[in-house]
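I am writing to request your help with a piece of structural work I have in hand. I am sending you one protein, given as its amino acid sequence and as whole-number tokens for its backbone shapes. Kindly check, if you would, that the fold set down in the tokens agrees with what the sequence suggests. You will find the record immediately after this paragraph:
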Amino acid sequence: MKIAEIRDLATPDLKERLDAEVKAFEQKKINHSISPLDSPAEITKSRKEIARIKTELRSRVLNQK
């Protein structure tokens, strides 16, 4: 998901997306520890996606004040 797509989403949708991404990230880490993933870069991509969403949510909180 690109940053422009993230900015277009509403705040409640972003929070739901964040929860889903965190769960998926944790599941990927568990699966990778049991048996290696085909592409370990997926873990990095998930982590960066979570950071993008958190950054946008934080900027929205700061802009409200």
About this structure: The helical segments are 3-8, 11-34, 41-64. The first helix runs from residue 3 to 8.
